[in-house]
């Protein structure tokens, strides 16, 4: 018959398991710390690269696209904010903000001719015509990045417009109906609260509209 392990044997097994667990945790921590150190090194090198080539990043669309790919590999988003290190060094946050505003303007201006849908290549051509000298260097990648950073305007209700502007119900409805007539808003009914939503697809769906090619 096989003998059951005694108390001492069970304690030794438990101690061994604890030691293996601690060893595994230490190895995982070392790996994590090493990865953090490597990422910090990569980011430092990326910052140095950006300082050295900031003019190329600003003016050369192909170079700018490659720079964004480098940033993505180390978890850096230079477009995350218009403030901070990247914005002060490169100014590309402002560049994409300006580009986004121009894209919205072009989509609204061409809506009577194309129904709000514009080919991405055509959009880039119009943008280049509007921008002068070095500022005219815009790629399709730039357009898509600018579109991705646009914030959706969403929807409003009559009650919200009344409170926001201290308007009467009639004035709020007239203003929203005018936007409907101009094709700048859409009606969304059928909610449990019975309140009509006025959506603004000219802004909230612009990324889909422009990129729908």
Please write out the topology.
Blueprint: H1 7-52, H2 54-59, H3 61-73, H4 85-90, H5 92-114, H6 120-130, H7 140-148, E1 155-156, H8 158-165, H9 169-181, E2 186-188, E3 197-199, H10 201-204, H11 206-211
Antiparallel strand pairs: 1-3, 2-3
Shape: flat
Characterize the biggest β-sheet. Answer: 3 strands, antiparallel
Strand order of the largest sheet: 1-3-2
Number of DSSP strands?
A: 3
User: Alpha-carbon distance between the termini?
Assistant: 77 Å
- Overall residue-averaged pLDDT value: 75
Q: What is the SS-derived class?
A: mainly alpha
User: What's the SSE pattern?
Assistant: HHHHHHHEHHEEHH
Please report the number of helical segments: 11
DSSP strand (E) fraction? under 5%
The share of residues in helices is 55-70%
Poorly predicted sequence stretches spanning 5 or more consecutive residues: 204-213
Instruction: Give Rg in angstroms.
Output: 28 Å
**Oligomer designation:** single chain
């Amino acid at each position: 018959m096989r003998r059951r392990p005694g108390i001492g044997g069970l304690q030794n097994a438990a101690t061994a398991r604890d030691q293996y667990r601690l060893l595994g945790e230490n190895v995982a921590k070392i790996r994590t710390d090493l990865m953090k150190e490597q990422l910090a090194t990569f980011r430092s090198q990326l910052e140095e690269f950006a300082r050295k080539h900031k003019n190329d990043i600003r003016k050369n669309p192909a170079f700018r696209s490659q720079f964004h790919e480098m940033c993505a590999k180390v978890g850096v988003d230079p477009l995350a904010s218009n403030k901070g290190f990247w914005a002060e060094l490169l100014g590309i946050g402002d560049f994409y903000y300006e580009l986004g505003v121009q894209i919205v303007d072009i989509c609204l201006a061409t809506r009577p001719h194309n129904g709000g849908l514009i080919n991405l290549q055509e959009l880039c051509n119009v943008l280049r015509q509007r921008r002068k000298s070095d500022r005219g260097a815009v790629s399709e990648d730039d357009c898509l990045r600018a579109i991705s950073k646009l914030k959706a305007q969403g929807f409003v209700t009559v009650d919200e417009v009344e409170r926001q502007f201290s308007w009467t119900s009639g004035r709020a409805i007239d203003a929203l109906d005018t936007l409907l007539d101009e094709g700048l808003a859409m009606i969304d009914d059928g909610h449990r609260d019975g309140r009509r939503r006025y959506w603004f697809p000219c802004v909230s769906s612009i990324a889909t509209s422009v990129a729908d090619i």
